[in-house]
Amino acid sequence: MEVEQWLHMANGDGENSYASNSRLQEKAMLETRPVLQGAVVELYRSLPARSTMVVADLGCSSGPNTLLLVSLVIGTISDHNREAEQEQRPPAAAMELQFFLNDLPGNDFNLVFRSLDRLQKLTADRRPQYYVAGMPGSFYTRLFPCRSVHLFHSSYSLMWRSKVPDELSRGAYLNEESIYIGKSTPPAVIKLYQEEYQKDLSLFLTLRFNELVCGGHMVLTFLGRKSKDMLLHGEASSMWDLLAQALLSLVLKGLVENEKLVSFNLPFYAPSVDEVKAVIEENNLFNVEHMSVFESSWDPQDDDTHDDVVLGCTSSGLNVARCIRAVVEPLIKKHFGEAILDDLFMVYASMVSKHLKKAKAKYPIITVYLKAKH
């Protein structure tokens, strides 16, 4: 499977689309808003008069969240200028903003561009002037000219790898009962995923350093782990382990060939904070200005992360299943065929519901704010 061709969220704006099932990602962006605002204000103040600030969103996807970054940056600068006027500080330098929205070529860029009219209405009375362009391509490749970008932003994207580890993608059935890292995954396979992650993140940092202006900033948010334990109750491994079990149930019913299941592995890795720090330190191109971990319930409709009890496990299971389907439907469809989708996610919803009866499941989410070294 060509990851760059099939790794994208479910297109369109229908019931099972990413556009209709991306509230988790919206909550993460709003949670990290103060970090982003701090980076924007610092950059804005540092730029000379009549310059252009270039901002790139890596892994923008499509739907209501896609233009949230644009709105947040414009709003932050507009509010900063208003405060300066009220405090009778010198007027801010005239500036324009150039936004680049990046994702893989399979992303629904048509939906993104159709939503620009709505954004223009929301920002009609705000300044500075801004321009929006699409930038298709993998963020594990060069995307921009040297020293051309002031701020990189990426939310809910960097846990996706550039590829499945080579040893798994060549047809070696080393991880037969799992599609990622599950209870039965051998230590050797875990090591393959870890090594792929280390290579990818180091490459990503090097590419972005070359594209950033001197002292440029990055704000990165992605699924991670709180500890070395890969299989804590609520973390990403458990989520994918349940999907593997749902696929296995279809194998037992004769709806899916076993060979299809054992040859399917996700290009995904959720790192621990220590793993992230280790790669950044070894890469030695960025200073860490901020790093934190917060949690978000699996159920995108559940905003109470303090209560560990799920009151409506059945409805939460359905909510989680819709959310995960919007993320992996293109990959599932390519590898297993479209016919199993409804059955698979019905079974998955039931399994998630049972899982949530033990305790509420929460994703650990890592936020990192980096500045390029001079």
Short characterization:
Keywords: Magnesium, Metal-binding. By secondary structure, the chain is an alpha/beta fold.
Care to describe what's here?
This protein has 374 residues and is α/β, with parallel strands linked by helices. The protein has a single domain (3-372), classed as Rossmann fold. Helix content is 44%, strand content 18%. The protein contains 13 helices and 7 strands. A 7-stranded mixed β-sheet has the order 3-2-1-4-5-7-6, sandwiched between helices. Helix 3 (33-46) packs across helix 4 (68-86), helix 8 packs across helix 11 (273-283) and helix 9 packs across helix 13. It is globular, with a radius of gyration of 21 Å. The mean pLDDT is 83. It comes from Triticum aestivum. Keywords: Magnesium, Metal-binding.
- Span of the ends, CA to CA: 40 Å
Level-1 CATH class name: Alpha Beta
Largest sheet: 7 strands, mixed
Structural class: alpha/beta
The H-and-E topology, N to C, reads as HHHEHEHHEEHHEHHHEHHE
Task: Output mean pLDDT.
Answer: 83
In CATH, the topology is named: Rossmann fold
Task: Enumerate the strands of the largest sheet in spatial order, edge to edge or round the barrel.
Answer: 3-2-1-4-5-7-6
Number of helices: 13
- CATH architecture label: 3-Layer(aba) Sandwich
Poorly predicted parts:
none
Number of domains: 1
Beta-strand residue percentage? 15-25%
Q: List how many beta strands DSSP finds.
A: 7
Specify the CATH homologous superfamily: Vaccinia Virus protein VP39
Tell me the Rg in angstroms: 21 Å
Structural shape: globular
Approximate helicity band: 40-55%
GO biological process, one term: methylation
Protein name: Jasmonate O-methyltransferase
GO molecular function: metal ion binding; S-adenosylmethionine-dependent methyltransferase activity
Keywords: Magnesium, Metal-binding
